[in-house]
């Protein structure tokens, strides 16, 4: 049963920040409620103040922003899935949004809530990493920006200060000719593993690569050594090298044992799924579709 | 969850042993530990352990029992408690083994613990990570406290 709390509906970010600053750990931000209400109902979180930021003007805006794509914190997954600006600039993100959780969650759950709650078993942060995402944080004192990789510090832990709100996430669209894929695997409600890959092309060669792995450890991470290894190869040779790159990525992740599986299992599944995701991305870069299908797997 | 760490400090075992029984100094070495008091010297203690995982705060009044003492080399503790608000039961056992090493000491810390209740939904791995961070910070603070 929910315990009593005061519900605030601030009209501005500054007002929300005032309540956060005043109540500290006794206050919680609330938008879609798909994460916070679960732990409130489970009795794991007790708050004196719940701050509903859904009505703060501008926070749900999705727009092109100086060559980037800016997604407001209270934009729902459903809104991201449908937004023309997302389809135009980061279509992979629209595809991933279509497969977040279930339709009830997608209709009310928000991008900002997802990132700020920092549940390790989540899709968005992983796919955002291959768009070099930067989060914008605001408080009474002003605004600051942080790369997403620095914002998510661990499981359920972020760099957000107590009086700050995450107001938006900014994605850098890939250059023309780039191709990518997001592949997730899971037998539970939340994914066991998610892999995002982006391949930037220079003619028939790979000019740059981004590989992100999520859900297997406390936070999603880029696989820098795997990315470095991919650079300079011919796209046509990727299938031959995919095993080696996948093994590098599997060596870079920091898997933890949980209800989804042991750390050893997750490391091996990382190897398997990085390889699969690379092949899907490479096929797309070459203008083909692999038509790959795997059990309990969603390929975006 | 289980955490094992070896820690080298620059004081010999007798000096370290004395420090291990200094309750206020030991409490200061344990992140999140407070309200400690001695119930029965060298036998029973009480303390409150508060830890945060993201938005969730676990705060447990612990009953600590010294279950084995071999001065100045071995110390075993059992700790139990319950966070009524979260419905979480905590049980821990900690063994410290002190051996001379060059001019100082090597302490082997072996901690085993269980957290039962809804917090289990967070997953063993998250709690294991938290426990490792806690023991590592304890080791760092203990070294600083001992070596001044």
Number of structural domains of chain B: 1
Radius of gyration of chain B: 15 Å
- Structure annotation, total helices of chain A: 12
Order of helices and strands of chain B: EHHEEEEEEH
Distance between the termini of chain A: 38 Å
Let me know the largest β-sheet of chain A: 5 strands, antiparallel
Arithmetic mean pLDDT of chain B:
90
The named CATH superfamily of the largest domain in chain A = CO dehydrogenase flavoprotein, C-terminal domain
Number of strands of chain A: 15
Strand order of the largest sheet of chain B: 1-7-6-5-4-3-2
**Percentage of residues assigned to helices of chain A:** 25-40%
Helical segment tally of chain B?
3
Distance between the termini of chain B: 31 Å
Largest sheet strand order of chain A:
4-5-10-6-7
Key terms:
heterodimer, A: 300 residues, alpha+beta, Uridine Diphospho-n-acetylenolpyruvylglucosamine Reductase, domain 2, Uridine Diphospho-n-acetylenolpyruvylglucosamine Reductase, domain 3, Enolase-like, domain 1, 3 domains, 5-stranded antiparallel beta sheet, 15 strands, 35% helix, B: 148 residues, Alpha-D-Glucose-1,6-Bisphosphate, Chain A, domain 4, 3 helices
Structural account:
- The complex is a heterodimer of chains A (300) and B (148).
- Chain A has 300 residues and is α+β, with helices and mostly antiparallel strands.
- Chain A has helices at 13-23, 36-41, 77-82, 84-89, 91-97, 103-108, 111-117, 124-129, 148-151, 224-230, 238-252, 263-285, and strands at 6-8, 27-30, 49-52, 62-65, 68-72, 134-139, 142-147, 152-154, 157-158, 165-171, 179-185, 193-202, 205-214, 221-222, 297-299.
- In chain A, the strands form four sheets. A five-stranded antiparallel sheet of chain A has the order 4-5-10-6-7. A five-stranded antiparallel sheet of chain A has the order 14-13-12-11-15. Chain A has a three-stranded parallel sheet with strand order 1-3-2, with helices on one face.
- By secondary structure, chain B is of the alpha+beta class.
- Chain B has one domain (2-147): START domain (Alpha-D-Glucose-1,6-Bisphosphate, Chain A, domain 4).
- In chain B, strands 1-7-6-5-4-3-2 form a seven-stranded antiparallel sheet.
- The interface between A and B is medium-sized, with 24 and 18 residues.
């Amino acid at each position: 049963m929910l315990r009593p709390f005061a519900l605030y509906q601030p009209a501005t970010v500054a007002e929300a920040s005032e309540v956060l600053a005043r109540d500290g750990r006794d206050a919680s931000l609330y938008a879609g409620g798909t994460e916070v209400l679960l732990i409130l109902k489970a009795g794991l979180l007790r708050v004196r103040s719940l701050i509903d930021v859904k009505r703060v003007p501008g926070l749900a805006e999705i727009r092109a922003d100086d060559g980037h794509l800016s997604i407001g914190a209270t934009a729902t997954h459903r809104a991201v899935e449908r937004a023309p600006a997302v389809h135009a600039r980061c279509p992979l993100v629209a595809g991933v949004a279509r497969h977040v959780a279930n339709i009830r969650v997608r209709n009310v759950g928000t991008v900002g809530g997802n990132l700020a709650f920092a549940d390790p078993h989540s899709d968005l942060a992983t796919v955002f990493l291959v768009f070099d995402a930067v989060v914008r944080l605001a408080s009474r004192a002003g605004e600051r920006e942080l790369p997403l990789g620095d914002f998510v510090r661990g499981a359920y832990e972020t760099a957000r200060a107590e009086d700050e709100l995450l107001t938006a996430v900014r994605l850098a669209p890939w250059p023309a000719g780039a191709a990518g894929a997001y592949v997730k695997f899971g037998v539970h409600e939340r994914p066991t593993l998610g892999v995002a890959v982006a391949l930037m092309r220079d003619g028939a060669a790979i000019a740059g690569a981004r590989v992100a792995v999520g859900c297997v450890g406390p936070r999603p991470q880029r696989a820098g050594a795997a990315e470095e290894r991919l650079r300079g190869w011919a796209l046509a040779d990727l299938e031959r090298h995919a095993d080696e790159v996948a093994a590098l990525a599997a060596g870079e992740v920091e898997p933890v044992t949980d209800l989804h599986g042991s750390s050893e299992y997750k490391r091996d599944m990382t190897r398997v799924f990085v390889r699969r995701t690379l092949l899907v991305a490479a096929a797309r870069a070459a203008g083909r579709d692999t038509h790959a299908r795997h059990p309990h797997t969603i390929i975006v | 969850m289980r955490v094992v760490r070896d820690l080298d400090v620059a004081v010999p075992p007798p000096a370290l042993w004395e420090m291990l029984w200094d309750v206020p100094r030991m409490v200061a070495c344990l992140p999140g530990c407070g309200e400690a008091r001695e119930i029965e010297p060298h036998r029973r203690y009480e303390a409150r352990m508060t830890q945060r995982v993201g938005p969730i705060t676990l705060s447990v009044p612990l009953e600590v029992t010294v279950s084995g003492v071999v001065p100045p080399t071995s110390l075993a503790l059992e700790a139990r408690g319950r966070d009524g608000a979260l419905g979480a039961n905590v049980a821990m056992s900690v063994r410290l083994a002190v051996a001379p090493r060059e001019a100082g000491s090597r302490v082997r810390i072996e901690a085993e613990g269980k957290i039962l209740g809804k917090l289990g939904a967070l997953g063993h791995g998250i709690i294991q990570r938290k426990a490792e961070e806690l023991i590592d910070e304890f080791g760092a603070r203990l070294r600083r406290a001992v070596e001044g």
